[in-house]
Amino acid sequence: MLKIHNLHAKVEDKTILKGLSLEIKPGEVHAIMGPNGAGKSTLGYVLSGRDGYEVIDGQVELKGKDLLELETEERAREGLFLAFQYPVEIPGVSNMEFMKESVNAMREARGEEPLSAAEFLKKAKEACKQVHLPLDFLKRGVNEGFSGGEKKRNEIMQMILLEPSLCILDESDSGLDIDALQVVADGVNSQRSPERSFIVVTHYQRLLDYIKPDFVHILADGKIVKSGDASLALEVEKEGYAWLGGKAQEADA
Amino acid sequence: MSQWLEQVVERAEQANLTGPRLQALTALKQQRWPTRKTEAWRYTSVTPIEQLSLSSVQTIRANATDIDGLDSLDLVFIDGVLQQSLAALTLPAGLTIQPLSALSDEEQTAASLFGQIKPAHHIFGLVNDVLAEQGLIIDVAPGADITQPIRIINLSSQGQESHVRMVVRLGEQSRLCVIEQGEGQDPSLHTAFAEYQIGPHAHLEHYRLALHTAKAVQVGGNHFRLLENAELNSTLVAFGSDLSRLDVDIEHAGEHAHAKFNAIYLLGSGETFDLHSCIEHAVPNGTTEENARGIVGDRAKAVFNGRIHIHRHAQKTLAELNNRNLLLSRRGQINTKPELEIYADDVKCAHGATIAEIEEKALYYLLSRGISRSQALIMLNFGFIQELINQIPNGAIATWLQEKLKDKFSQMEVK
Ligand SMILES: Nc1ncnc2c1ncn2[C@@H]1O[C@H](COP(=O)(O)OP(=O)(O)OP(=O)(O)O)[C@@H](O)[C@H]1O
Ligand SMILES: [Mg+2]
User: Fold this and answer.
1) pTM: predicted TM-score of the whole model, two decimal places
2) Domain coordinates in residue numbering, chain B
3) Which of B312, B188, B202, B205 is closest to B242 using CA atoms?
4) Distance separating the N- and C-terminal Cα atoms of chain B
5) Which residues form the SUF system FeS cluster assembly SufBD N-terminal domain (chain B) (predicted)?
6) What is the A235 CA–ligand 2 centroid distance (Å)?
């Protein structure tokens, strides 16, 4: 599914990813944990092709394609989905219009007919219910005035509608109450399939009780410094990141 | 005086002008060629005019863009020369169209033709006064409701210079729709000024589509004079070119008149457009709503100067002026300046100007969901232009413009 090899990337002259390698097979769930400022969100931005995030070295392949050659929108159409740590508010564009445009952009890329307004509405309502958001959230401006937890659920709703092949969830659990955490986890689990892979970025082992990862990686100072199975998350929960030593501690500042 | 202006004066002197046009020549001779120190030309340089190399041999002819579904009576000028015989036109009852030459000096004076365009800020109005050889005089009889829009098309082809003048007079309680459409892209110079007198209770729907681009220089203006209870609904759409400049004056000469003026400009890379509007409330109880909105691309330059002048006796005036801009690049430039001169105390007057930039985060969010860049830009940033398109009374023009403007916008680069 995804092969990252020796990825180096910088933002405004600051090198943040410093030789990150990671391989994800179809159907796998990989959790990434790591101190604040380690570069977890940066990894998501670099993979999705955000302007200003410059790759200085390394390769990334998505389903055998050179991902770094593609524009942001093309990456999305190739099946890459990033649930944002901080979803963007766009007043003036309705959530409904936004999601319809994006679903139809994906369909067009796959050579399918666009959904009619009625067809889309039906799907959107189902997805909306699945993440326990009231239906009027479809009419509101994109994330406009949504609470932190509502924004996260809105991201999961988009993921359900867009049917991506690689989902990167950047702290989709932070700021959620216990019930919302369950909703988000259920949403993710409902999408798990042998063809779909997940990168779950989280600070808390708790989410991983709900979404069972196949692998857990520790990202510190722009690199994967340790990988293991689900038990690694429990270790982190107990011991924190002190064992990483000096360099990563700086990044923790 | 510049060389360019000198040759204009020379040509005008050979034309044996009389009456108001001779007065215009006298006034023109006293004009200074605009520099950056000339207030009305502070942000826009006239050097593209001086640097144009024009030839008298016509090479490539321009073609007018069609507006689908618009059933209009078209009058086409190519490089200032009317392509049809006015005598051969069948016109609806109440409408007359004459060539400019049909007006005698006396009539010109009586109709106060060639006098409206204010020399203080219209040096090119004077140039047009003395050089315009062709033009139209359109009259609508009192009470006549002319349903078919009249479209005046001005095409500029390579190497050509043209000066066209128009006078439109709407009689009491009449109605008319006029579309002025100008196009060209090759090196050329076009001036087009039109004066409208809207009679008591008359209604004018007006469009100025200033679609000159690239190397085609155009300078022009519209002067609207509104009598009692007259109504004006005018929409201006402009692209930019090496130099594109329009001056729009709206004069409330009769009470209870209502003017609505919307302007849209979309400037691609390196283009310039300068809009000066001046609203004069000389009498009480008039209302004016003006909205100018534009998108300015890389290294493009927009100038908007919106003046509202409310005279001492013009009580109960309601005037609103708003200018909104979207800047697509740090290298683009917008100079916007509302100018209010209010001498009456019982008036409502509002003005405002804003400049927004592309929100990188919002754009990225949409792109990350597979939405194309052009579609994302339209979703995020076309709304404020769309609002003005939605206000266009003529459905065919609105539909056509929507396509054309969206298209242009989606091809503009964001830097
Ligand atoms: N535009 C920028 N200019 C300079 N530094 C930046 C910029 N964007 C991000 N960084 C820095 O890059 C580092 C990595 O940030 P990133 O958001 O990827 O961390 P993270 O691992 O997601 O942290 P968190 O757990 O707090 O979400 C941080 O030190 C951050 O300050
Ligand atoms: Mg982060």
Assistant:
1) 0.84
2) 3-360
3) B188
4) 40
5) 7-152
6) 21
